[in-house]
Amino acid sequence: MMENNNEDMEKANQASAVGGGIEAGPGRVVEKIPGKVWTPIRTRPRQEKKLRAFAESRSVETYLPLRTSKKRYQRRTVEFLVPMFPGYVFAPLDEDSYRALLVCGAVAFKMSMTETSEKGLIRDLNTLLDFERMATKKEIVVKPEIAEGTFITVARGSLQGVSGIVQRRGKETLLTVNVDILGQSVSTKIDIEDVELKE
Fold first, then answer.
1. pLDDT of residue 48
2. pTM to 2 decimals?
3. Which of 12, 45, 81, 166 has the maximal Cβ count within 10 Å?
4. In the beta sheet, which residues pair with residue 102?
5. For residue 139, is it within any domain?
6. Cα angle at 13 between 10 and 14, to 5 degrees?
7. What CATH number is associated with residue 129?
8. 125-163 per-residue burial string, b: 16 or more CB within 10 A, e: under 16
9. Which residues, listed in sequence order, are joined to residue 78 by a DSSP beta bridge?
10. Cα 20 to the center of its chain, rounded Å
11. Which domain holds residue 122?
12. Distance of CA 98 to CAs 4, 43, 108, 122, 137, Å?
Protein backbone atom coordinates (compact mmCIF):
# COMPACT_ATOMS: atom_id res chain seq x y z
CA MET A 1 0.00 0.00 0.00
CA MET A 2 2.82 2.41 0.89
CA GLU A 3 4.54 1.68 -2.45
CA ASN A 4 1.36 2.61 -4.35
CA ASN A 5 0.99 5.85 -2.38
CA ASN A 6 4.57 6.80 -3.20
CA GLU A 7 3.91 6.17 -6.89
CA ASP A 8 0.82 8.39 -6.73
CA MET A 9 2.80 11.15 -5.07
CA GLU A 10 5.53 10.95 -7.72
CA LYS A 11 2.93 11.25 -10.50
CA ALA A 12 1.36 14.22 -8.75
CA ASN A 13 4.70 15.99 -8.42
CA GLN A 14 5.47 15.42 -12.11
CA ALA A 15 2.04 16.72 -13.14
CA SER A 16 2.26 19.83 -10.96
CA ALA A 17 4.18 21.71 -13.65
CA VAL A 18 1.14 21.40 -15.90
CA GLY A 19 -1.75 21.23 -13.47
CA GLY A 20 -5.29 19.99 -13.92
CA GLY A 21 -8.89 20.72 -13.12
CA ILE A 22 -10.82 23.70 -14.45
CA GLU A 23 -8.81 26.06 -16.63
CA ALA A 24 -9.79 29.55 -17.74
CA GLY A 25 -10.45 28.67 -21.37
CA PRO A 26 -13.41 29.80 -23.49
CA GLY A 27 -16.71 28.46 -22.21
CA ARG A 28 -15.30 27.04 -18.98
CA VAL A 29 -17.64 27.54 -16.02
CA VAL A 30 -17.99 26.35 -12.45
CA GLU A 31 -21.32 24.59 -11.97
CA LYS A 32 -23.20 22.85 -9.17
CA ILE A 33 -22.48 19.11 -9.17
CA PRO A 34 -25.24 16.91 -7.70
CA GLY A 35 -24.16 15.14 -4.53
CA LYS A 36 -21.08 17.33 -4.07
CA VAL A 37 -20.40 20.76 -2.57
CA TRP A 38 -17.92 23.29 -3.94
CA THR A 39 -15.54 23.88 -1.06
CA PRO A 40 -12.40 25.94 -0.38
CA ILE A 41 -9.58 23.62 0.69
CA ARG A 42 -6.83 25.15 2.78
CA THR A 43 -3.47 23.74 1.74
CA ARG A 44 -0.18 23.53 3.52
CA PRO A 45 2.29 26.27 2.49
CA ARG A 46 3.11 26.29 -1.23
CA GLN A 47 1.24 23.03 -1.84
CA GLU A 48 -1.56 24.33 -4.10
CA LYS A 49 -0.23 22.95 -7.40
CA LYS A 50 0.77 19.69 -5.76
CA LEU A 51 -2.78 19.21 -4.46
CA ARG A 52 -4.30 20.13 -7.82
CA ALA A 53 -2.10 17.60 -9.63
CA PHE A 54 -2.79 14.88 -7.07
CA ALA A 55 -6.55 15.54 -7.35
CA GLU A 56 -6.30 15.11 -11.11
CA SER A 57 -4.59 11.75 -10.61
CA ARG A 58 -7.58 10.71 -8.46
CA SER A 59 -10.17 12.12 -10.92
CA VAL A 60 -11.23 14.81 -8.46
CA GLU A 61 -12.14 18.10 -10.17
CA THR A 62 -10.49 21.25 -8.81
CA TYR A 63 -10.11 24.92 -9.60
CA LEU A 64 -6.93 26.79 -8.74
CA PRO A 65 -7.23 30.46 -9.81
CA LEU A 66 -3.89 31.73 -11.13
CA ARG A 67 -2.40 35.12 -11.88
CA THR A 68 0.69 36.23 -13.75
CA SER A 69 3.63 37.31 -11.61
CA LYS A 70 6.67 39.13 -12.98
CA LYS A 71 10.15 39.07 -11.49
CA ARG A 72 13.24 40.88 -12.66
CA TYR A 73 16.42 38.82 -12.87
CA GLN A 74 19.41 40.98 -13.77
CA ARG A 75 18.57 42.21 -17.29
CA ARG A 76 15.50 40.13 -18.03
CA THR A 77 11.95 39.91 -16.74
CA VAL A 78 10.43 36.48 -16.17
CA GLU A 79 6.67 35.82 -16.06
CA PHE A 80 5.15 32.83 -14.30
CA LEU A 81 1.80 31.74 -12.90
CA VAL A 82 1.16 31.82 -9.15
CA PRO A 83 -2.00 31.13 -7.10
CA MET A 84 -4.36 34.09 -6.98
CA PHE A 85 -5.25 33.15 -3.39
CA PRO A 86 -2.20 31.47 -1.83
CA GLY A 87 -3.14 28.50 0.33
CA TYR A 88 -6.48 27.72 -1.33
CA VAL A 89 -7.70 25.22 -3.92
CA PHE A 90 -11.41 24.86 -4.70
CA ALA A 91 -13.12 21.53 -5.36
CA PRO A 92 -16.59 19.94 -5.45
CA LEU A 93 -16.39 17.47 -2.59
CA ASP A 94 -18.23 14.61 -0.98
CA GLU A 95 -16.83 12.47 1.85
CA ASP A 96 -15.11 10.00 -0.49
CA SER A 97 -13.37 12.62 -2.63
CA TYR A 98 -12.17 14.53 0.43
CA ARG A 99 -10.73 11.37 1.98
CA ALA A 100 -8.95 10.67 -1.30
CA LEU A 101 -7.30 14.11 -1.22
CA LEU A 102 -6.12 13.71 2.37
CA VAL A 103 -3.71 10.99 1.20
CA CYS A 104 -1.72 13.66 -0.64
CA GLY A 105 -0.52 15.30 2.57
CA ALA A 106 -1.01 18.77 1.10
CA VAL A 107 -4.40 19.42 2.77
CA ALA A 108 -4.57 21.38 6.02
CA PHE A 109 -8.38 21.47 6.30
CA LYS A 110 -11.54 22.23 4.35
CA MET A 111 -13.96 25.04 5.07
CA SER A 112 -17.49 24.29 6.25
CA MET A 113 -20.08 25.04 3.57
CA THR A 114 -23.86 25.47 3.40
CA GLU A 115 -26.15 25.50 0.36
CA THR A 116 -26.26 29.30 0.50
CA SER A 117 -22.51 29.75 0.86
CA GLU A 118 -21.89 27.32 -2.00
CA LYS A 119 -24.09 29.40 -4.33
CA GLY A 120 -22.07 32.49 -3.47
CA LEU A 121 -18.80 30.63 -3.94
CA ILE A 122 -19.82 29.33 -7.36
CA ARG A 123 -20.70 32.89 -8.40
CA ASP A 124 -17.35 34.17 -7.13
CA LEU A 125 -15.37 31.38 -8.83
CA ASN A 126 -16.99 32.13 -12.17
CA THR A 127 -16.00 35.78 -11.70
CA LEU A 128 -12.42 34.64 -11.07
CA LEU A 129 -12.54 32.62 -14.29
CA ASP A 130 -13.50 35.85 -16.09
CA PHE A 131 -10.52 37.59 -14.51
CA GLU A 132 -8.18 34.83 -15.68
CA ARG A 133 -9.52 35.03 -19.22
CA MET A 134 -8.58 38.69 -19.61
CA ALA A 135 -5.93 38.88 -22.30
CA THR A 136 -5.01 42.57 -22.01
CA LYS A 137 -4.97 45.24 -19.33
CA LYS A 138 -5.42 48.89 -20.21
CA GLU A 139 -4.36 52.03 -18.37
CA ILE A 140 -7.35 54.39 -18.28
CA VAL A 141 -8.63 57.68 -16.85
CA VAL A 142 -11.51 57.71 -14.38
CA LYS A 143 -14.65 59.56 -15.43
CA PRO A 144 -15.79 62.15 -12.87
CA GLU A 145 -19.13 60.38 -12.36
CA ILE A 146 -17.43 57.04 -11.64
CA ALA A 147 -15.85 57.91 -8.31
CA GLU A 148 -13.61 55.71 -6.21
CA GLY A 149 -15.70 53.36 -4.11
CA THR A 150 -18.60 53.31 -6.61
CA PHE A 151 -20.32 49.93 -7.10
CA ILE A 152 -20.41 49.28 -10.86
CA THR A 153 -21.21 46.59 -13.43
CA VAL A 154 -19.06 45.96 -16.50
CA ALA A 155 -21.35 46.39 -19.52
CA ARG A 156 -18.97 45.34 -22.31
CA GLY A 157 -15.77 43.45 -22.91
CA SER A 158 -14.32 40.29 -21.38
CA LEU A 159 -15.70 41.08 -17.91
CA GLN A 160 -19.25 41.83 -19.08
CA GLY A 161 -21.77 41.27 -16.28
CA VAL A 162 -19.20 41.31 -13.46
CA SER A 163 -19.94 43.71 -10.58
CA GLY A 164 -17.46 45.20 -8.16
CA ILE A 165 -15.99 48.30 -6.54
CA VAL A 166 -13.97 50.95 -8.40
CA GLN A 167 -10.58 51.75 -6.89
CA ARG A 168 -7.65 53.94 -7.94
CA ARG A 169 -3.95 53.06 -8.03
CA GLY A 170 -1.95 55.91 -9.48
CA LYS A 171 -3.37 56.59 -12.94
CA GLU A 172 -4.99 53.16 -13.20
CA THR A 173 -8.63 52.27 -12.57
CA LEU A 174 -9.19 48.92 -10.90
CA LEU A 175 -12.24 46.72 -10.51
CA THR A 176 -12.15 44.88 -7.20
CA VAL A 177 -14.31 41.81 -6.59
CA ASN A 178 -14.57 40.21 -3.17
CA VAL A 179 -14.51 36.46 -2.63
CA ASP A 180 -16.70 36.66 0.44
CA ILE A 181 -16.07 33.25 1.96
CA LEU A 182 -12.29 33.84 1.98
CA GLY A 183 -12.52 37.43 3.16
CA GLN A 184 -10.18 38.34 0.30
CA SER A 185 -10.49 40.24 -2.96
CA VAL A 186 -8.94 40.33 -6.41
CA SER A 187 -8.47 43.37 -8.64
CA THR A 188 -7.82 43.99 -12.32
CA LYS A 189 -7.52 47.02 -14.58
CA ILE A 190 -10.68 47.98 -16.45
CA ASP A 191 -11.66 50.38 -19.23
CA ILE A 192 -13.98 52.91 -17.66
CA GLU A 193 -15.82 53.21 -20.99
CA ASP A 194 -17.05 49.64 -20.46
CA VAL A 195 -18.74 50.20 -17.08
CA GLU A 196 -22.12 51.42 -15.92
CA LEU A 197 -23.37 52.42 -12.49
CA LYS A 198 -25.04 49.63 -10.50
CA GLU A 199 -28.52 50.63 -9.34
1. 96
2. 0.68
3. 12
4. none
5. no
6. 85
7. 3.30.70.940
8. bbbbbbbbeeeeeeebebeeeeeeebebbbeebebeebe
9. 71
10. 13
11. 2-133
12. 19, 13, 12, 18, 37
